[in-house]
Amino acid sequence: MPIRSPSLAMHTYMADDDTAPRPHHQFTTHRVILLLTAPRHSMATRSAAAVWAGSGWAAPQPCRPLTVRRRKLPRLPCYLSTTFPPCPGICTSSSHKNRALPAAATEAETEDEVLLESPGHFRIYKCGKMDRLNEPTVSPAGLDEATGVTSRDVVLDADTGVSVRLYLPKLREPSEKLPVLVYFHGGAFLIGSADDATYHSYVNALAAAAGVLVVSADYRLAPEHPLPTAYDDCWAALQWTVAPSTQDEWIARHGDTARLFLAGDSAGANIVHEMLVRAAAAASGPRMEGAVLLHPWFSGSEAIEGEPPAVPMFNGMIWSYTCPGAVGGADDPRINPLAPGASSLEKLACERMLVCAAEKDVLARRIRAYYEGVAAGACRAPGAAAWFESEGEDHDFFLGKTDCERAKQLLDRVAAFIAEG
Prior knowledge:
By secondary structure, the protein is of the alpha/beta class.
């Protein structure tokens, strides 16, 4: 059954050919392969990622070819979706901010069975370790000739490597002040970066179309830095953006932080929700004029009406891997804002919200339920919550098909939403 995972297209397969029911303990011997597709780019790539193994760095081993046959996916036992045993320190890192501390690993651990695999992206083992297999394409900051947007990087914390990339569109006059938009990239909290060519290209287009000064946050990734690290890094980036004492000269001269927006896609849109919750709870937290959630990654322990049962099962597995200490597992309010005990959707710290989904995204029903919860908030004025759905498209399609008509329509809708204020 084809399903979607945050940021990337996902199809599920089982590596064995036996379709007969098995006892629960035998299901744990299966290899589940997640075939994820992502846009390919011709730009320069990072140098090959390294894998920490024992006491030294080594090049990652190529994926072994697997012969798999699509078949009906059985309902796996629930404990697979809620726990990952701890396994010290074998992870691929694409930048210094995502490197785990060295740790000894036995030969048995390094040869452990694969639980989830995204060929070319990441491989997660049953013991808990992960290989990051992707070599993300990288775009340096600078002038983008196609849009006229100029970008540059600012390091917020030299110790952690957390940084932001600022995007300044063409100004009509030198003293012009622009709305400020803080953007959070997707990638299931496992992959992605602000300087990835896919996101760099999209944010350039967004800054130009909407006429906004963008602060794109580059946060640390799981599993080397389990959640809430990414949330904390993004909260620090948001606070840096609005704090006069730390503001960058571009923001000080050309940014109007009184017109502050948040936006993100997939896991990045999940971060947007968490930032709104934190800002609402903080005594002097920033107040956003608007928030744009592009195909947000939300899940739960159980499927909701209209949602394939396999979707929350696999999303729960990824969530428990990225956030092993989550209270309530996949019903943690950060991944399931509709769960009992979650913060009220009436109290989110923004005046307006645009929630976007794709018709063929298996997350669409849950995204719609989130939108309906926000729109029903008693404190919100009529029309304060808006819905936009892209017909015939799938999760995060606009990142890989930036020139298609529906991607342009989505970008136009986001720009119009920002201009409405």
